[in-house]
Specification:
Length: 90
């Protein structure tokens, strides 16, 4: 008897979306962050990010046309500032 071996079809690997928080821990991303990225990093609703911007209590952002963007270096500085503020308040 003769058996012919055939290869099983190989499916393309599913792309894995990088966790923005892991990117910030490992080094600064090479792009400006969107409000959605900020919401994901801090695990808050997107509306919270918009309220932070409106009340000027969150990380500083800037406009490119009608789009809001955040510099990763500013996000890191904001987190560091918040850590020190919380430590000093305790």
């Amino acid at each position: 008897m003769y058996f012919q071996l055939t290869e099983a079809p190989v499916s393309a690997p599913t792309p894995v979306k990088a966790d923005p928080r892991a990117t910030l821990r490992g080094g600064l991303p090479d792009r400006y962050l969107t409000p959605g990225d900020i919401a994901e990093i801090f695990e808050v609703p997107l509306e919270t990010v918009y309220q932070w911007r409106k009340k000027r209590t969150g990380p500083p952002g800037f406009r490119i046309g009608r789009h809001v963007r955040y510099d990763p270096a500013d996000i890191r500085a904001y987190v560091t500032e918040r850590k020190h503020a919380d430590r000093d308040a305790a």
